[in-house]
């Protein structure tokens, strides 16, 4: 008789778990608390769905921030090339963009969800929408079924928990999986927002709201024992917001910041291609060509107008000051500020805005070869509910698909 498997959650991990379990011959029921499947998939990659990253295995693993070694068996079950082949076989044509990011050719996230849904329905998976699981049932030291919100019990041979984390709670990610895990005796690593924007102590970024910076270097430091420790330094894009800073560099930084952001300072190098000496020479040349003009006019040649004015304000200089009246000390102050615009981290933006959750079910309680609980046989975990996360670029969705594939396959075989 076919094994009866419940998959809780119809996101990326749950859809793949259902697909792999059904392909392995199991009788699968998928419980989804929302009115449709893949609700979070629809908003990934700004609605375009960055399904994976085409990077080589070694480069891919470098983008996983927490517990990368835990994922070796999952990637053996379904890696990025395997996922791309699977989706193409299901009729989703893919393309690779800058940074090896992989998207549907159509730029529609719905194509991915619909293709996976079509396939699981073709395989006979029973999909129950608007059906929230309240708890996982156990019997004789094994997972034995689920109880839904209406109080009904459903018997199963294995259960895959793929309920997501806490980010974007409007998609149904409200932490149910952590409750199921705790009930089974699992420890939960503290959950925090990751891949999110940063609020700053300084309020001046609000005046530059919407201004995007390209080819700048963002660095972060934290005072430890009176000495600044470098936490991060990378070149790329970022932008100013009404609360602080955001954009690709900032999202990446948010995932590597320590739990306490107290004393974390940011520094933006607006001219990373020039060292201080070369930048000073550049400004001296500009000054000599514009010696009868105002300082603000010279800044317009260096940075967007609003940012140039803000830099001068940070240097305690006036845009109306005549260039021929700028002292060497003032000029050096200007150079230093352009090379290190200072900001102070106040907080990370909340779960409502975070792309993913950092933390979750501690991996030491889960068998990495099967995704099965070491504490309650027959219970499996997949996706964001686990304490595994990565940087932006399709890596997190691949983790969800890979752990889902392994959990579904293992549940069917176990």
Secondary structure elements and pairings:
Layout: E1 4-8, H1 12-23, E2 27-31, E3 52-53, H2 57-62, E4 64-66, H3 72-77, H4 80-89, E5 94-96, E6 101-104, H5 109-122, E7 126-128, E8 133-139, E9 142-148, E10 153-155, E11 158-161, H6 176-183, E12 188-194, E13 198-200, E14 212-224, E15 227-240, E16 244-246, H7 248-256, E17 264-269, H8 276-289, H9 295-300, H10 305-314, H11 328-339, E18 341-348, E19 356-361, E20 379-381, E21 389-390, H12 395-413
Parallel strand pairs: 1-2, 1-11, 2-7, 11-20
Antiparallel strand pairs: 3-6, 4-21, 5-6, 8-9, 9-10, 12-19, 13-16, 13-18, 14-15, 14-17, 15-16, 17-18
Helix pairs in contact: 1-5, 1-12, 8-11
Could you please describe the fold and organization of this structure?
- The strands form 6 sheets. Strands 13-16-15-14-17-18 form a 6-stranded antiparallel beta barrel. Strands 7-2-1-11-20 form a 5-stranded parallel sheet, covered by helices on one side.
- By secondary structure, it is α+β, with helices and mostly antiparallel strands.
- It is built from 12 helices and 21 strands.
- Strand 15 and strand 16 form a beta hairpin.
